[in-house]
Fold:
Amino acid sequence: MPFAAPVRDFQFLLDNVVDFAQVTQTDKFSDTDDDTVSAILTEAAKMADGVIAPLQRPGDLDGAVLENGVVRTSPGFKEGYQAIAEGGWVGISGDPEYGGMGLPFSLAASVNDMLSGACLALGLNPLLSQGQIEALETHASDEIKALYLPKLNSGEWTGTMNLTEPQAGSDVGAVATKAVPNDDGTFAITGQKIYISWGDHDVAGNVCHLVLARLPDGKPGTKGISLFMVPKYLPDADGNPGKANDLRVVSLEHKMGLHGSPTCVMSFEGATGWIVGEEHNGMAAMFTMMNNARLQVGVQGVGVAEAAYQHALAYALDRKQGRSPIENGQGTIVDFADVRRMLIQMRAETYAARAIALACSVAIDMSHATHDKDWEARAAFLTPIAKSYGTDTGIKVSELGVQVHGGMGYVEETGAAQYSRDVRVTAIYEGTNGIQAMDLVARKMMDGGDMAYRLLDEIEADAEAARGDLGDLANAVFDATENLREATEWLLEQEFQTRFAGAVPYQSAFARVLGAHYHLRSARGEGGAGPRTELAKFYIERLLPDHKASLAAARAGDEGLYSLSVEDLAS
Structure:
């Protein structure tokens, strides 16, 4: 389906809203000048628009299949993946020592945003490899790095993560897959893993599985889990794919969407693996990959929201129905107030979610470049918000896209429904948005709310500075921030059960205020007049007030959730 990567939005946000300039001023990223950024965004957009987007609909209609133990991907996916790999886009932020481009994560996130909008099912593949690259760079031995990283960065091989088991979903500590030491320093991995995205395929030469498993002396729970590299094909003496490892695809899941992405049930049957990181400390290594992936999943939601918006806008500009209610209108349904409302909301939500994701990416880049604990804390705090708001936005905007199409949105022929079906899983995988919210109000508040208050201080300072030119908008953002501050103070006084009861609405309120903050910055960056300023007005006047209802729900406590018994619920 037609798609145009929003290069101007990326460029404007990087230049005027999320302060990307501070990243390029660090020693680590000093070679990333304006020309490099422009070239990366432009070339990635060409690939996304011209090569990947045409695969969106075929991947849905003719999805991956398992035939005689071999996974065959959708027509064109192999060629599309090769274009991604040959362009260097898999290793865009990888260490140059191992063949990566060494560019800021912010640019990697921008490219993944484009790929997700073009075709989420295929764009998911390099995202997984990028998470594995970061995990190996941080935790693997020099031997594993030397063997696997060049192949992963080049896209010759692809990566997966294997956490979930039938009895171990969000409770990772229940993992039962076993790892038994062999005499040669390797381990025999035995167990079953489910929901393994791109667990097998025919688009690259090898599939590198990072597998959580328990050693014989591993304690119960997460502290007894180790991490292992278990490739589909065992590398030979020259580092090329050799003998097949003792693992297989049991089946492919039949899903509501993402049909082009093979989601595998994997069986490891004494497969040969190599430990990554320290024994019994596999969760630390896996969390490196998961934290990378959580932000990138938020970016997936933003990319799909962009595509769904473009699809709905094109339809609204073409569909004639009734007499135009405005003078000199388009003569199509885009002239109707409710359709215009939906389209502007789609655009405003997508823009805010993209800004939050890029702000989180900048914090990650600064933490990598400076090793400053404050930047690390900022990145950690923003990650659950970026993941949840990005994916919630993808779902909401895709749903609105169906509504803009009217009855034709419910007809598969238009392709509008595919965005809703594809993006729905993003609020579930890599930690549900409820788990993200629990993480935000618990682990991310272990500093006594310090990082939350720092962000609130910055938002209020920016609102103060904007009062001269954008008084009403700035005042609304300032007042909302004060409301959020009061709710945060209340939250920190509560027991965890009370916090968890209101975690999701609190997270939603924080995202709303952050979104308003970045819209206000965008309006200031434009000079206080123009389309971005009008978009900011819509968001701040019509969507920001949602935060009040969310904060009321966040402060309602947990008693009301348990006043109805299980028997009451079933009656």
